[in-house]
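Chain A, query sequence.
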Amino acid sequence: MKNFVVTFARGFGTGGKVIASKLAKELGVHCYENRILTLASQLSGLDKNVFEEVNEKLRTSGGGLASLMSGLPRARKYIARNEKFVSDDKLFDYQKQIILNLAETESCVIVGKCADYILQGRDNVVSVYIEAPRDFCIRRTMENMGVTEEVAQATIKQTDKFRADYYAYYTHGNYWTNPINYDMTLNSEKVGIDNCVSLIKDYLKIKGLID
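Chain A, predicted structure.
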């Protein structure tokens, strides 16, 4: 049986990363998220911090979150669509090379990084989008990060905007949460974390990608 890849896009606080990790563990494959940054660093010879600076967000100078976000990663203003973005485009290209290579060489799960778009049209790829109501995401963020409701709300809003703008830029205007982009869109609150994993596995069986 040939290699398969499951890509995940996820709203912040939805549990998408947890679902991806659980799925990978149950399937006995690797789950790649920030490890892709490490591999891209090794491929390019550039410091990993350079890739972390633009991890699923666009980079320009200036800007920052309000004081209530003190201690969290600083936000940045977004580049206009008609401005040059050469250096970060190159960083994206290194990550793209890693994702394409992974899809050719092993079965795996890939979280974020526009992987669904990069691997679109391949019959061995299943793309999943995980979303949930805002209240659910806020509660999970407060619990997981140990922050107040106000900080949780701001973190979710800012991170999701980072991801949406990043996705739109590198997919040439595609909309990150458009369900047409994905094989499956799951509500992690209504379905449940473990049931999301089970449903994705069932779909992989339907597609003939796993036994």
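The first strand starts at residue 5 and ends at 10. The longest helix spans residues 149-170.
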